[in-house]
Each structure stands twice: as structure tokens, then as C-alpha cells.
Write a structure and sequence with these properties.
The complex is a heterodimer of chains A (356) and B (298). With 356 residues, chain A is mainly alpha-helical. A 3-stranded antiparallel sheet of chain A has the order 1-2-3. Chain A has a two-stranded antiparallel sheet with strand order 4-5. A two-stranded antiparallel ribbon of chain A has the order 6-7. In chain A, strand 2 and strand 3 form a beta hairpin. Chain B is an all-alpha fold and 298 residues long. The radius of gyration of chain B is 25 Å and the shape is globular. Chain B starts with 13 loop residues before the first strand and ends in an 8-residue tail after the last helix. Classes of the chains: A mainly alpha (356), B mainly alpha (298). Chains A and B meet through strand 1, strand 2, helix 1, helix 2 and helix 3 of A and strand 1, helix 1, helix 2, helix 3 and helix 5 of B.
Chain lengths: 356, 298
């Protein structure tokens, strides 16, 4: 480490354990990299613009619309870099109508809650998109699973029925199966598949999803049928969209309706002020009300978290699982199946908390 | 399975039962089955009505030209958020949330139009007269006239004027288009008279005018425009996730990355020593008294 004159005299910053000499750290910013590397530019293969044009995948956007193309067509251009067949465009239009509204489910609820705070509409619409995860709006989880099993199945020479049965046996109760008890009385999901078939656009993902439905109906102990996640996911994949693209398109589609929920909430419900909302005592099941100990008695009342042996750690860990809100009962059990996104894991594992 | 809503609300928008999802009285699946378009469905959602064919075409056109705008605040934010590799929806949410007072201020433009149309009604003025009044009042007060000017498309936004023309071609122009045209006429005339540079109409000025004339309230129009942009921003985020580098600071890339340390230009207070705790009170008091810090307060 450096000479005495380089000592900082600040806290632990003169420790020899540090990876470099903190007393010799430079001030000032890093100079621009002249000559060695190209200067920064926004790199995109999706679009560019200049003073007079906006160009997406090579097509001028105004020219696309002047030629009579529609929003679904533009989505094919953006995500797939191609002009779709008229039938494909019609089917995407159909899917987007079905994705537009879902009553007071999570996106609308979030939008309304944000609306109560007196915000811009865009904050609420943006927040509604965050509701799309791996259970609600689980398009990426659904699609990635189909792709993975199908690819593996093909390598192993399995039939679609065999792949479907494997998917069901390994994922029967998963939120992203696409088959559930949600649409036993509502024919909308099956109508979407029928529309895809009528337009001649049903491919292997719809075929696989139909097999999954059959397998689930055979294996499940309760009545199940194709749900909107399965119908939408399979149809969109047969239209050539990746699971990630489907996630984005569906979330945005719903966010438009979430904006309408924002507007209605503002129109019909007063704003909510800081501190206004009460939480009923009867909904509370934490520790009984207790006196805050005097600060001088901290040592008597404080509990240390450190454990010194694995046995102690395990015991403490299990005890902490019983504390709701501590995070100890959440197990990282589910990968984000998105291609090339962060491997964020979410889930829960303490059996005693299954009904949280 | 619990299927109760998160909370209860009286709503005129929709309901959902085990049998169907109903939007403003129409079974959503029937809307799709009968061949209506997504644009049609948005009229049902926001306006409780089936639109004319040309109104639906106008909405489709407006959304289509607005979806993609390359590197704007929305796409940049989606890309920036994607660098941390969160779940995709976080990037799209960020992009939609960028729409505020400057980036695509559709609601503000709509409210401005409504305010001056109200004045035409209350004060017995013509639309042309309130158009001039609007330009003069905003300019005199050094306020930007909503719908005019775009920092990148300096000769007028390439999407903007064609939207006006499309509105006229489809026969869906109304009082809003008349007012917007008047605003543009007087805006250009005043700037010319004052020797100032040409500032063209932007996509909010023309697109939002069209949306107003086909019946969308300012916030509904804003919603459609800003959320629509999310469609392309998701693609920009995915491009970064699938084909770009996470974090945006790699030194092994042939091009300097956006978060390379050399991208930082610091213009804040000069480097200074952290005061010792024993000097703290005296140091802090002096800082407060001298008040130099106030110029850095944000």
C-alpha cells in the first residue's frame, strides 16, 4: 500500500485488505476514447429516422399507412420484419380485440389504484403493464415451454401427443399451461383457435396446444379446457411471433384498456390522500400490540441475527419463514424463461404459506 | 380457485363472468368474430359506439404512424431499462411512462383545443378568431404552442401533415381540424413576422387533432398514442436483450457503449475532501452561511 502521506485516515479506507490503494485514487472523469474505438451511437436493426423520414425495418412508416396497411401489419413489420398475409393480419386483429379487456383483473386494478393518486394517465397505463408476469399474462412462460418441449420432442422422435402428455405430466398445475378450469363455460378461447383454422393459419403450436388440452383433460382430476392464455399464445406463435414479442404486444394491448379504467376511476372515484386509507385491525394477524422499549434498554431487548454454525443457521432460517413479509418463505423456483433476459427467479416454497 | 376481483367498482366499461367478457354491452368474442377491427374495439372501449368505417380507418392510420419513432425518449428508456435485464414488461412500462409534458403531450394539446373552442362558444368568436387568440396568448406568455415543433424533424414532422391530408380525404375533419389549421396559419405568420425560424406542426398537433375529431377525449387520445408506442418499444428492448450487451459498458465492444465511463461529463462542484466528523458542525454551519450550495440545489 502507499506511503504514510497517502493514508486517508478515514474509517477502514487505509486497510491493506482493500483491492487497491484508496489514498491514491484519482479524481476527475474518464477522458473520451479518441481513436481506439468508434464513438457511441444508438444501434438498432428495428428502425431509424432522419429529419424527413421514420423507417422501420426498411419501410417508411408514413408510406406504410398511406398504402393502407394497418396496425397489425405494422406489428408484423416491427417484430418479424415482414409484410403479413391479409389473413395473418386479420387474425392478429382478432387476437388483439380479445386481449384488449379483461374486466377488473390486475392491469385494470393497478391502473385504477395509480389513478387514485392523481397522476398522469401514462403512469397508470405503464404500471398496468407491470402486471404481466409468469402467472398472469404468462405468454413468455407458455411460449418458451412449447418451444422447448417441441424441439426436444422432435429430436427424440416423439409425436405431438407424446410431447403434449409430457408437458402436462410435468406442468399440470402450472399457471402457464394454457389449459385450466378458467374457461369451461366461455367458448372464446376455442373460437379463436377455430378462427385460426378457418383462416388456414393453424400450425404446429395450435396442434400441440390442442393435444395438451386433450392430455390435460385425461390426466387432470378436475374439469379443464383450453384457456385464453393457451389460445392466444398458440395462435400468436403460429403467426410467427416469439414468446417475448407476444408478451410485449399483449401487455401493451391491455394497457390501452387500462387507460380507460384510469379515466373512469378519475371520473367516478375521489382521489386518495396520503395517510387516508385505513387497514382494519381485524385484518391484522401480526404480533400483539406492545410497548416500544426505551432506547437505553436496547441491549436487553435486541436480538442478533448472526448464526455461527449451519445448524443454528438452519434453525433460524426455519423460524424466519414463519415471519410473513420477511422473504424467507419465498424460494427461487421459477426461472424467467425469456430468451436472453435476466434469470430472475420468483416463487414460494414454505408449505405453511401456500395460501398467502 | 378464487376468482373474486381485487376490489369492487361500479364500472360502465366491462364485466366478466364464467361465460363471457363483455365490453360496453358487447361480447368481446362476438366483436372479433363479426370481423370488427382492433380500431373498432377502441371506439367501443372509449366512446361506447361502433365507429363509421372512415373513423376506424383514421384511428388505424394515426396509430400506425405513431407506433414507431426510432430513438425517442420512449425507445431510449426501454433500451436503458433492458440493459439491466429485468422482465420485458418493465421496459415497456418505462417507455409508456416517458410520455409527459413534452414527449407526446397529447392530452395537453386536447385540453388546449377544448379550452379555446369553449371560448369560441362562450364569447361568440369564430374558430379562426380563437385560433389567432390561442397563438397570440401562448406566444405573448412565452408558452410553447402545443402541437408545434419537433426537435429532430426540423422541417415539420414527416407524419404530421399527411395526417391532416388523410383526415380531409376520409371526410372526418371537424372543428378540431379547423382550429388546428387556424393555429398553424397564425403561428407561422407570427413567427415569420417576428423574423423567427419556421417551426412545423408535429404529430401531436395533427394526430391528436384527428383523434379529437373522431371523438376521443384528450386523455383517451393520449392513452391510445402513448401506449401504442409501447408496441415498438418492446421490440427495441428485445433487440437489446437478444442482440445487444447487458449493462452497456463493455470495453471489449468495438464501439464505445452508452454507459462507458467516458460518457460521463461532470459539471458539478469541484472535488473536495470529506470533512472529519469532529469538524462537521463548524463545516456544515459555514456551508449554510455561505450559501454557495444553493446553486446546486435541484
Amino acid at each position: 500500500m502507499g506511503d504514510a502521506k497517502d493514508k486517508t485516515g478515514i474509517g477502514n479506507l487505509d486497510s491493506p485488505d482493500l483491492p487497491f490503494d484508496y489514498g491514491k485514487r484519482e479524481y476527475g472523469t474518464v477522458p473520451l476514447d479518441h481513436g481506439n474505438r468508434a464513438p457511441f451511437q444508438w444501434v438498432s436493426e428495428v428502425s431509424y429516422k432522419n429529419v424527413h423520414r421514420i423507417v422501420v425495418r426498411g419501410y417508411d412508416t408514413t408510406e406504410l399507412m398511406e398504402e393502407g396497411y394497418g396496425v397489425p401489419d405494422v406489428l408484423f413489420v416491427i417484430y418479424q420484419s415482414r409484410i403479413p398475409l391479409e389473413e395473418e393480419s386479420k387474425l392478429l386483429d382478432y387476437v388483439m380485440i380479445m386481449a384488449l379487456e379483461d374486466g377488473l383483473s390486475a392491469p385494470a386494478a393497478i391502473s385504477r389504484i395509480v389513478a387514485q393518486s392523481k397522476t398522469f394517465l401514462t403512469q397508470a397505463a405503464g404500471a398496468s403493464i407491470l402486471a404481466f408476469g409468469h402467472a398472469y399474462g404468462a405468454y413468455v412462460a407458455f411460449g418458451a415451454r412449447l418451444k422447448t418441449y417441441l424441439e426436444e420432442g422432435k429430436k427424440e422422435g416423439k409425436s405431438l401427443a407424446e410431447v403434449a402428455e409430457l408437458i402436462v405430466r410435468e406442468n399440470l398445475d402450472d399457471e402457464a399451461l394454457g389449459v385450466s378450469e378458467l374457461m369451461l363455460k366461455d367458448p372464446a378461447a376455442k373460437r379463436m383457435i377455430a378462427r385460426a383454422e378457418k383462416l388456414g393459419l393453424a400450425g404446429e403450436y395450435i396442434a400441440l396446444t390442442k393435444e395438451i388440452t386433450k392430455a390435460a383433460q385425461k390426466i387432470s382430476s378436475k374439469p379443464v379446457d383450453l384457456d385464453m392464455l393457451g389460445a392466444t399464445g398458440a395462435t400468436m406463435m403460429d403467426l410467427g411471433f416469439t414468446p417475448e414479442a407476444i408478451w410485449g404486444i399483449m401487455a401493451c394491448t391491455r394497457a390501452i384498456a387500462a387507460g380507460a379504467h384510469f379515466i373512469e376511476e378519475v371520473e367516478r372515484v375521489p382521489y386518495s390522500r396520503t395517510g387516508q386509507m385505513l387497514t382494519p385491525r381485524e385484518d391484522y394477524d401480526g404480533p400483539e400490540d406492545r410497548e416500544v422499549p426505551d432506547l437505553g434498554d436496547r441491549a436487553k431487548n435486541a436480538k442478533s441475527a448472526q448464526t455461527k454454525t449451519v445448524d443454528e443457521w438452519k434453525k433460524a432460517f426455519d423460524e424466519r419463514k414463519l415471519v410473513y413479509g420477511s422473504g424467507y418463505s419465498i424460494m427461487e423456483e421459477t426461472e424467467d424463461p425469456s430468451e436472453k433476459t435476466g434469470i430472475k427467479k420468483v416463487g414460494r416454497y414454505a408449505p405453511q404459506h401456500q395460501n398467502i | 380457485m378464487n376468482r373474486e376481483p381485487f376490489f369492487r367498482r361500479k364500472t360502465s366499461l366491462s364485466y366478466k363472468t364464467e361465460e363471457q367478457t363483455v365490453l360496453r354491452g358487447y361480447n368481446l368474442s362476438d366483436i372479433a368474430e363479426k370481423g370488427y377491427s382492433f380500431s373498432d374495439a377502441l371506439f367501443v372501449l372509449f366512446q361506447d359506439r361502433i365507429p363509421t368505417e372512415n373513423e376506424a380507418k383514421m384511428l388505424n392510420y394515426e396509430m400506425g404512424v405513431f407506433i414507431e419513432h426510432s430513438m425517442s425518449p420512449s425507445a431510449v428508456s426501454a433500451t436503458g431499462v433492458a440493459m439491466g435485464r429485468p422482465n420485458l414488461p418493465a421496459t415497456v412500462a418505462a417507455s409508456v411512462s416517458t410520455f409527459g409534458g413534452v414527449h407526446g403531450p397529447g392530452a395537453a394539446h386536447g385540453y388546449m383545443m377544448n379550452k379555446y373552442l369553449d371560448r369560441a362558444y362562450d364569447e361568440g368568436k369564430s374558430i379562426d378568431e380563437v385560433g389567432k387568440l390561442l397563438v397570440d396568448e401562448y406566444t405573448d406568455n412565452e408558452q410553447p404552442v402545443m402541437g408545434m415543433g419537433q426537435p429532430q424533424h426540423i422541417d415539420s414532422d414527416p407524419r404530421a401533415y399527411p395526417i391532416h391530408l388523410k383526415q380531409e380525404e376520409l371526410g372526418v375533419g371537424g372543428v378540431y381540424l379547423e382550429l388546428q389549421r387556424a393555429v398553424e396559419k397564425y403561428f407561422h405568420a407570427r413567427r415569420k413576422k417576428e423574423g423567427r425560424s419556421y417551426v412545423g406542426v408535429n404529430v401531436v398537433g395533427s394526430g391528436n387533432t384527428a383523434l379529437c375529431d373522431i371523438g376521443f377525449a384528450p386523455n383517451a387520445a393520449w392513452c391510445i398514442g402513448s401506449v401504442c408506442r409501447g408496441f415498438s418499444c418492446a421490440a427495441h428492448a428485445l433487440f437489446n436483450m437478444k442482440k445487444g450487451r447487458a449493462w452497456g459498458a463493455s470495453r471489449s465492444e468495438p464501439m464505445v457503449q452508452v454507459l462507458d465511463l467516458s460518457m460521463i461529463k461532470y459539471i458539478g462542484p469541484a472535488d473536495r475532501k470529506v470533512p472529519k466528523q469532529e469538524e462537521r458542525q463548524e463545516y456544515a454551519m459555514k456551508q449554510k452561511e455561505e450559501g454557495e450550495y444553493k446553486k446546486w440545489v435541484i
